[in-house]
């Protein structure tokens, strides 16, 4: 097997795109990030790490990192591929904060990373990827979805910071709320929507499209407004709009430690695809 670093997101998608698209739902994060980087190479402010491992010129794994964030692993056709990547990345950036990927692949990478001299790791969060090809709205939820407006900025920024405090795994690089919001509003296929019940009560982001789908998230309702169905209704309405615009699939990630989110999304049409683990090092 051979590891090949790639010079940009365009080359990454040219080499690995067909491999990733065969499991589009599993690879929605990789495809979405690479698509954004192809359109906006300086989006994250640092040179990304983009690599594939091939066996007899056939791709068996693809890997992407946008510093300071974690390395993202694809599904692997040969699990040994992560050991080549661990050795290569240790030379490039021995301060790698973590890795996100399929459970077995992420565990194998973490083990190889430590054996090669990197920091020890632990699972900080287990997540589940969901896909919806159709959706239905929950009954009896007051309010309506509307587009984000400039007057929503301060509320949305506050909610983003609260979301990061509650939902991001310990050791994960901090979310810069202002950068995230500006980037999502600037993205041609992305955006933010609000659920309004007399006043704003919940928000959701969407963007990072894949060849036939798009990712929904984050989704947040402040604590004092929960258990009223706002987030469920918002995700259902947003998903319906995105599918009506021509997307065949919508994807989202949930924290496996949160039974509420894992149940409510299934009630509106999302089905589980696979589980991934986030490891943090140090």
Describe it for me?
The protein is of the alpha+beta class. The chain folds into two domains: 2-119, Aminopeptidase; 131-276, 3-Layer(aba) Sandwich (Aminopeptidase), CATH 3.40.630.30. 35% of the residues lie in helices and 30% in strands. Strands 1-2-3-4-5-12-6-11-10-9-8-7 form a twelve-stranded mixed β-sheet, sandwiched between helices. A hairpin with a 1-residue loop joins strand 8 (191-197) and strand 9 (199-207). The radius of gyration is 19 Å and the shape is globular. It starts with a strand and ends with a strand.
Number of strands: 12
What class do helices, strands and sheet pairing give?
alpha+beta
Give the second-level CATH assignment, the architecture of the largest domain.
Answer: 3-Layer(aba) Sandwich
Q: Secondary-structure element sequence?
A: EHHEEEHEHEEHHEEEHEHE
How far apart are the first and last residues' alpha carbons, in Å?
A: 29 Å
Residues in helix, %:
25-40%
pLDDT under 50 segments (min length 5)?
Answer: none
Number of helices: 8
Mean of residue pLDDT? 95
According to CATH, the fold-level topology of the largest domain is: Aminopeptidase
**Per DSSP, what share of the residues sits in E-state strands of 2 or more residues?**
25-35%
Radius of gyration: 19 Å
**Sheet with the most strands, sense and barrel status:** 12 strands, mixed
